[in-house]
Write a structure and sequence with these properties.
Helix Hairpins, 2 helices, about 0% strand, mainly alpha
């Protein structure tokens, strides 16, 4: 009877130790699961932040490209106006030259008229040179605006590429974290 009691006591002690071990294992699994869930949430939030940042960069690039396109259209309109003005000045200069030649072939009493026409001719030529200078300046501005537009489009494409890479990384991290969490859940 004493030996049976001894075996019972040893059995009860072993059962208590086993129950304590099971409880400790359950607590460890719960704490580990909580930690992984926390890490998964942090990864998800970090991925979302990276995606939002990339989308904001892409939006800024599109807005910059739109501004550059508007500037390009404005410069093109100004260039067209200058070209029309240049054509008018050229036609006017040709007309003035024709009048000057007609006046020179007239009698001496028309010398005053010729002088006035020559003055107008010089003024027209000066305006013509000024208009050509403005046209060259506007063409340079238009070229610079086109270059800026190309850079803006390149920046938008690069931002879209980075956004795609970061989205892929975030999705991969999320999938990995979910896999680890599922493995922990199954192990528990």
């Amino acid at each position: 009877a004493a030996e049976v009691a001894s075996w019972r006591a040893r059995l009860e002690a072993a059962e208590r130790r086993g129950a304590a071990g099971v409880q400790a294992a359950e607590r460890g699994a719960k704490e580990s699961g909580d930690e992984w869930r926390s890490r998964l949430e942090e990864e998800r939030l970090a991925g979302r932040d990276r995606l939002l940042n990339a989308e904001q960069e892409a939006l800024a690039s599109r807005q910059a490209a739109a501004r550059l396109e508007a500037e390009r259209d404005e410069l093109a309109s100004r260039l067209d106006a200058v070209q029309k003005e240049l054509l008018m000045k050229t036609e006017h200069s040709t007309a003035v030259q024709s009048k000057a030649r007609s006046a020179l072939s007239s009698a001496s009493e028309h010398e005053a008229i010729v002088a006035r026409l020559e003055a107008k001719l010089r003024q027209s030529e000066a305006e013509y040179r000024s208009a050509r200078s403005v046209r060259a300046s506007l063409e340079a501005e238009l070229s610079a605006a086109r270059q800026q537009l190309a850079k803006g489009r390149e920046a938008e494409a690069e931002a879209a590429r980075r956004r795609g890479e970061e989205r892929d990384q975030a999705e991969a991290a999320l999938a990995e974290a979910r896999g680890e969490a599922e493995a922990l859940r199954r192990a528990a």
